[in-house]
Amino acid sequence: MADPGEDFSGFMDYLNAADAAEKEEQRIMAAHELWRQTTYGGWMVRQIQAVSTHFAPFLEEVINIMSDDSSISKIVFLNFVRMVVILVAIGFVLATARIFQKILGTDIIQEEEIVIVHEYATEEEAAKARAEQAKEDKKNQ
């Protein structure tokens, strides 16, 4: 015949282990809450959680729309998401191109300096020479 005390053998050890695990979990949660309240990383986590709780109703509605297979809203939403993904990809390519352009530099521009040498001392001499040149050009044509 079986001993009725055997059914509960190790039960107290199990209760003690469960109690120790619960106390350890509470200690870890208290340390985590202290981290959330006293560090910049914890502040950022709190801000992200606040934003996510703010947008939770919207996200729940989106999930409801996505679960309905015959909904026109699902088709419109999927096309909108596709457009956003394409625009983000284009923006990423343009941003990467700008970064490479900043690193490598822009077009090479060669500037030429033009120096005008005056052959004549006065404006009258220059006008006389232009008139003679015009007469020669007329003869040559």
Q: What portion of residues belong to β-strands?
A: under 5%
What is the rounded distance between the termini?
A: 137 Å
H/E series: HHHHH
Backbone CA Rg: 42 Å
Query: How many strands in all?
Result: 0
> Overall pLDDT, averaged?
87
Helicity range of the residues?
Answer: over 70%
The coarse silhouette is elongated
Major beta sheet, specifics?
A: none
Secondary-structure-based class equals mainly alpha
Uncertain spans: none
* Number of discrete helical segments: 5
Question: Please, could you describe this protein's structure?
Answer:
The chain is mainly α and 141 residues long. Helix content is 75%, strand content 0%. Among the domains are: 11-54; 69-105. Helix 1 (11-38) crosses helix 2. The longest helix is centred in the middle third of the chain and has 33 residues, at 72-104. The radius of gyration is 42 Å and the shape is elongated. The mean pLDDT is 87.
